[in-house]
Amino acid sequence: MVVLTGEIFVDLLGRNPMGHTTLTYAGVLGGAALNAASTLARVGVPTRFVGEVGQDFLGRWALARIAERRIETRFIQEVPGIATPLCLAELDPQGEAHHSFYRSYGASSFEPDSAAMARAKWFHFGSLSSFQPRNVPGIQKLLEIALEHDVPVSFDPNLHAPPDEGYWEQLRRYMPYVSVLKASLGDARRLFPLVPAEPQALLECLVELGAPVTVLTLGERGAWAAFRTRVYRVPGVRVRVVDTVGAGDAFTAGLIYGFLKQELTSRLELLAWDGAQLPVILAASCHLAAITCTVEGAHPPEEPLNAWWERFG
């Protein structure tokens, strides 16, 4: 069982020219960790999501869509008095998304049920919501359970803005729990703005955060990873890009899937691993991210995903 936590959004995707007097958007289910959960469930991984929606139409709609994806929903809480969050993603001509987030939590706090970690073989969290004061105690509780039961933890910063000192203080508290740190080139540049923008320099800075496995994604240029004293590099996969929404989340799903295929279901096993298959895991994750870019939205198309599963499963 892979357990993931994060925000549940209704994503509003649009390609609106500045000169138009009206705006048009298509609503789809979103949220970085939820996108990763959806892909994992589609390739047969038992998947559980821990999160919140509002007691409104969008919340009920989101829960129905999550259940359709064969993701366990019993630890998703319907919170009275809040509106289900929205993420507006305006796509530029190159398919890159520019995000605006709309949240209304009021005085509520995130209080996940400890039972959500039952039978967990992997735990994943990340994004800016993990650093919001209302969410930190609940996430910390889940991380403590993961540590107690030796469950590997992956973390994706998924930054959309430069971090402040409060972010860094909380990141330092989170990192002792993290087994796998996966960051994009954009994440790394925001975390380390004074460091030269070359992958090697940024990867070295990420390694200093202390995760046993550190991964840096470079989009169409592939990915780098550091494990023990070795650095691994794999090239990207060239495709015709429709948009890049969810590509990083698909990469995260590929990483988790790859580690599970290696039967690395405890932090101790991960630390004792020889890393020989890490380049294969990285290549599979790059491939999964690439096919996600061939369609609009965050979910890989069916036929290429099945071909990916046959090849790497």
Layout of helices and strands:
Layout: E1 2-5, E2 9-14, E3 26-30, H1 32-42, E4 47-54, H2 57-68, E5 76-79, E6 83-91, E7 97-104, E8 122-126, H3 136-148, E9 153-156, H4 165-174, E10 180-184, H5 185-191, H6 199-207, E11 213-217, E12 223-227, E13 230-234, H7 247-261, H8 267-272, H9 278-292, H10 302-312
Parallel strand pairs: 1-4, 1-8, 2-6, 4-5, 8-9, 9-10, 10-11
Antiparallel strand pairs: 2-3, 6-7, 11-12, 12-13
Helix pairs in contact: 1-7, 7-9, 9-10
EC number: 2.7.1.45
Protein name: 2-dehydro-3-deoxygluconokinase
Domain Carbohydrate kinase PfkB: 6-301
Word description of this protein:
- With 313 residues, the chain is of the alpha/beta class.
- The chain has one domain: Ribokinase (UDP-N-acetylmuramoyl-L-alanine:D-glutamate ligase, 3-Layer(aba) Sandwich).
- Helices cover 35% and strands 23% of the residues.
- The radius of gyration is 18 Å and the shape is globular.
- The model has no long low-confidence stretch (mean pLDDT 94).
CATH class: Alpha Beta
Provide the β-strand percentage band.
15-25%
Uncertain runs: none
Task: Give the strand order of the largest sheet, numbering strands 1, 2, ... along the chain.
Answer: 5-4-1-8-9-10-11-12-13
Family: Belongs to the carbohydrate kinase PfkB family.
InterPro entries: Carboh/pur_kinase_PfkB_CS, PfkB_Carbo_kinase, PfkB_dom, Ribokinase-like
Pfam families: PfkB (PF00294)
EC number: 2.7.1.45
